[in-house]
From TrEMBL:
SUPFAM superfamilies, per database record: RmlC-like cupins (SSF51182)
Signal sequence, renumbered to the chain: none
Pfam families: Cupin_2 (PF07883)
Residues covered by the Cupin type-2 domain: 47-106
Protein name: Cupin type-2 domain-containing protein
Length: 113
């Protein structure tokens, strides 16, 4: 197997008009990606409802997420992480429009211990 490497803060997309999802690693039941946002948000009324669990870490920028049923918005700053259970509906309310918001997202199957 070949080793792979990179830097999550380098080689950012030049076009900031759309969010960019970059697959970093994938295998059965696991997907790791870098997401770069530049002021994007979920469309009005749209909710993510992922069949896999998701763990996200914010590396730069800032963002606000709403989890369905939560009383308040979850504000994320660099270093903030969040675990989102499978089928926990959520949406991105806003991302920083003045600098790239860089996320590390780990999607994984539900496992029992």
């Amino acid at each position: 197997m070949q080793a792979s490497y990179g830097n999550l803060l380098n080689n950012l997309p030049l076009d900031s008009s759309a969010e960019v999802f970059e697959l970093l690693h994938e295998r059965a039941g696991l997907k790791i990606e870098r997401i770069v946002s530049n002021g994007q948000a979920s469309p009005p009324g749209f909710w993510y409802d992922n069949p896999q669990e998701e763990w996200v870490l914010l590396l730069s920028g800032s963002a606000g997420l709403t989890l369905e049923g939560a009383r308040e918005e979850h504000v994320m700053q660099p270093g903030t992480w969040l675990h989102i259970p499978a089928h926990c509906r959520h949406r991105i309310e806003w991302t920083d429009a003045n600098q790239p918001t860089i996320w590390l997202a780990v999607h994984h199957e539900i496992t029992s211990l």
